[in-house]
Fold:
Amino acid sequence: MSEWTKICDVNDIPVLGSRRVARSTGMDVAVFRNDTGDVFALLDRCPHKGGPLSQGIVFGTSVACPLHNWTIGLDNGCAKAPDEGCTPKFSVKVDNHTVFLNTDELATHATDLKPPVAGPALKAA
Structure:
């Protein structure tokens, strides 16, 4: 049986917006809410160049990456054609207006992925 971690009240996530959830290990998780009240969770990283999906525009069951406008499916984390690639998704449960994420996934899922590095590459001394 799965254990769940309370994240927030569903109304704490803006309609057509998101909220970031920090983890002790690994990158943040972005929790999204669309205009019909559905809630989704993805790693806060576009599969293209690592853009912060939590800063993207939510429409329907998709989010547009703020860097290069890739469309990522909120239900599966995958880029819409012709683009390719996926970002990890997380299990979500909404119970009595409270949003929960799977505790095991929060602790272990995609913790090996590195955040993108912005700016010029550092040269070895």
About this structure: Residues 13-90 form a domain with the Rieske Iron-sulfur Protein fold (CATH 2.102.10.10). The chain has a mean pLDDT of 93.
